[in-house]
Write a structure and sequence with these properties.
alpha/beta; 3-stranded parallel sheet
């Protein structure tokens, strides 16, 4: 409950907050490890990396030398400069894509799946 300066409750108050909390989880290291393992062992003929983390610059560059790599930026903003490359670099046929709100809106589950319903405010 939002409270007024004197400590009384304000039922009519609108509480709004915006928080950006980014935390290192080591996921970039995991992505890099799996990408390079798969590419260097010949387990894949191409790769798609869904990230805009510039920490992946070196593994993506190495992968591009050996196989085509698609890079999908899930945030919709510009690709990190370190992840840019040339379509014909190394193995060639690389591509880039940015996801925007329309991509997510067009690919929603239906309102009801078996007995589970989407909440009304979604």
């Amino acid at each position: 409950m939002v409270q007024a300066p004197m400590g009384t409750s304000r039922a009519d108050a609108v509480f709004m907050v915006s928080i950006l909390h980014q935390e290192e989880k080591g996921s970039d290291v995991n992505v890099a490890t799996h990408l390079l393992t798969d590419v260097l062992t010949g387990a894949v003929d191409a790769a798609v990396v869904i990230s805009n983390d510039s920490d992946l610059k070196l593994p993506v560059h190495i992968a591009r030398e050996r196989v085509p790599v698609g890079l999908v930026n899930p945030h919709g903003n510009r690709h990190a400069g370190d992840l840019r490359g040339q379509r014909g670099q190394g193995a060639g046929r690389h591509w880039w894509r940015r996801l925007g709100p329309e991509d997510f809106l067009k690919h929603q589950l239906p309102p009801v799946v078996e007995r589970i319903s989407k909440p009304p405010n979604w």
